[in-house]
Design goal:
It is found in: Cytoplasm. It comes from Danaus chrysippus (African queen). GO terms for molecular function: ATP binding; phosphatidylinositol binding; protein kinase activity. Pfam families: Pkinase (PF00069), PX (PF00787). InterPro entries: Kinase-like_dom_sf, Prot_kinase_dom, PX_dom, PX_dom_sf, SortingNexin/PXDomain-PKLike. This protein is an alpha+beta fold. The protein has two domains: about 110 residues, PX Domain; about 325 residues, Transferase(Phosphotransferase) domain 1 (Transferase(Phosphotransferase), domain 1, Orthogonal Bundle), CATH 1.10.510.10. The strands form three sheets. A five-stranded antiparallel beta sheet has the order 4-5-6-8-7, sandwiched between helices. Helix 10 packs across helix 17.
């Protein structure tokens, strides 16, 4: 039984933020219906899986995604003639366009309907039921909280489920979140429980309190009070915290950007909370508008336990494109910049960098966004938390009388051995980020090479180069042939002369007759034939004559009448 549970744990510890790429490879007719073969690639890995889907499966997926209020180009259903090869080919192209449009929206690509559609082996539709069973058993033994009802799909994480619970002593309602361990989880259960004990006693004016937290076999649960205003994202889009996240954030009708004063006010508080966590050796790593709430005009950071659970960040696919986001501080700075962007424009940034901003944006806000999100910063260097805290946008917040509440003195203390374990866990997260960044760059480089090689322009250039090389070769070969023929015509073959040391004069006469030149007995290279030359000397003379280059001669006007 223990072996089965261990294999089950390792099976579900996958990165749910991996970018999906889907290609409809083929279509086949089976039992009077058409099935489409989908090849799916996850993240920077080259491993691909294949899954077979019918048109009705696409239709069911589209129905599940309609609550996001995003227009998706699914092809219409056809009852007659849907088995004809021409129609199947057209529909395959249309379905490819449909799935491309779905995966273009991150909120859809991260949803359980899409993941289970493309990767059914790793994404079961019964994840919520399993979490409910696990939490029910855990709370039954504690007696501190009573389970009231689940809050389905209020967050983007597939393996994080929310429940409404009631505290037994006070009778107040609270919210419980159960999260399965992620792919970067490496802490032993005892060490994790000790770290949780310290986190439960945390005190900071800009970090939300934790009422209870406990480790389980396959995950952990955390209990916090309910903040009626919801998260920053709920405020931005004018919605309630307990609604379905696809309906809330897919294509919201209401958008309420924060004012520049609010961005300065809340941004300073978030930076203070992040700096405090880093000073204790526990980076956040998951900053986004859904992890920040507001209470009495103070921003409160949520989900500080995610780093210990080893779960990936919402912005991880973008972090992999940022060369300089290779430490947890730089990751927090980059995610903070994306958070400010969404606070300012009430829409998430759709790419990993931003260089263009509206003309009416305040100058100091644009300066901070460029520090965190410009293409130059992403490639060269990102600022530190201290650098941002000293930026005029946030120093102005302190001048406005923004100081921590005196009753919330910052406090967080880990045992020494737990500090070392947390440091190791942070290193595991950083190592995987850096490895995936290298894999993404290598994959992008390979794609660029293939695009260059396959581009029509490059093919034309290669053909031109080939023609040029061919013409040069032909011209050089024709010149060599002409040179050889000319040398052969002007240099008749010498008749062999018997070797005789006493026949120097007759040899010179014969040479003069054969070359047709009685005025000069000197070969073309200027060397004078010595008297009594041997057969090797005559061979050298013949070689010089054959290799004679007539192009080096210049015309000389004779002075003889």
């Amino acid at each position: 039984m223990a072996i089965f549970e261990k294999s089950l744990q390792s099976k579900v510890r996958i990165d749910d933020t991996d970018t999906l790429v889907c290609l409809l490879e083929n279509a086949q007719s089976i039992n009077k219906h058409t099935e489409y073969i989908l090849r799916v690639q996850k993240g920077p890995n080259k491993e691909k899986t294949c899954v077979s889907r019918r048109y009705r499966d696409f239709a069911v997926l589209n129905t599940n995604l309609q609550q996001a209020n995003i227009d998706l180009p699914i092809p219409p259903k056809k009852l007659i003639g849907n088995m004809q090869p021409s129609f199947v080919a057209e529909r395959q192209i249309a379905l490819q366009n449909y799935i491309n449009e779905v995966l273009k929206h991150q909120i859809l690509a991260l949803s359980l309907p899409v993941r289970s559609f493309l990767d059914p082996n790793n994404y079961s539709l019964s994840i919520a039921e399993q979490a409910l069973q696990t939490v029910s058993i855990a709370l039954r033994g504690s007696g501190q909280f009573d389970l009231k009802s689940p809050l389905p799909d209020i967050g983007w994480r597939i393996r994080k489920q929310y429940f409404l619970v009631n505290e037994s002593e006070s009778g107040s309602n609270c919210i419980l979140s159960y999260q399965s361990y992620g792919p970067d989880h490496c802490l032993h259960v005892k060490d994790l429980q000790a770290a949780f004990k310290s986190l439960q006693n945390i005190s900071h004016p800009y970090i939300a309190d934790i009422l209870a937290m406990n480790t389980l076999e396959t995950g952990a649960y955390v209990v916090r009070r309910i903040y009626k205003n919801g998260s920053f994202r709920d405020l931005l889009y004018g919605t309630e915290y307990n609604k379905n996240h696809l309906a809330k954030y897919g294509n919201p009708k209401t958008r309420k950007p924060f004012t520049n004063g609010q961005i300065s006010h809340y941004g300073y508080q978030i930076l203070q909370a992040l700096k405090f966590l880093h000073s204790k050796g526990l980076p956040h790593g998951h900053v986004h508008p859904g992890n920040i709430t507001v209470d009495n005009q103070s921003a409160l950071l949520l989900d500080i336990e995610n780093m210990l659970l080893g779960v990936p960040s919402l912005y991880r696919p973008y972090v992999l494109d940022v060369r300089r986001a290779n430490t947890m501080e730089s990751v927090d700075v980059y995610c903070f910049g994306r958070t400010l962007y969404e606070m300012a424009f009430a829409t998430p940034l759709q790419q990993y960098y931003c260089d263009d901003y509206p003309d009416n944006i305040p100058q100091d806000l644009e300066s901070v966004l460029r520090l965190c999100l410009s293409s130059g910063s992403c490639k060269q260097d990102l600022p530190t938390l201290d650098t941002l805290l000293h930026h005029p946008l946030f120093t102005r917040a302190t001048l406005n009388g923004l100081t921590p509440r005196c009753d919330r003195r910052p406090h967080l203390k880990f045992p020494l051995n737990i500090k070392e374990q947390i440091k190791t866990a942070v290193g595991v997260v950083e190592d995987r980020i850096q490895a995936d960044q290298k894999a993404v760059r290598a994959a992008r480089k390979e794609v660029r090479i293939q695009e260059i090689l396959n581009s029509e322009e490059e093919m034309k250039k290669q053909k031109k180069r080939a023609k040029k090389r061919s013409s040069v070769w032909k011209s050089s070969s024709s010149l060599a042939e002409a040179s050889r023929s000319a040398s052969g015509a002007s240099s008749p073959t010498l008749t062999p002369i018997p070797i005789d040391t006493s026949a120097n004069s007759s040899f010179r006469a014969d040479s003069s007759l054969n070359t047709g030149n009685t005025a000069d007995n000197t070969p073309s290279n200027g060397a004078t034939l010595p008297p009594g030359s041997s057969a090797s000397s005559r061979g050298a003379l013949l070689s010089d004559i054959c290799s004679f280059d007539r192009s080096r001669l210049s015309r000389v006007t004779s002075s003889l009448s």
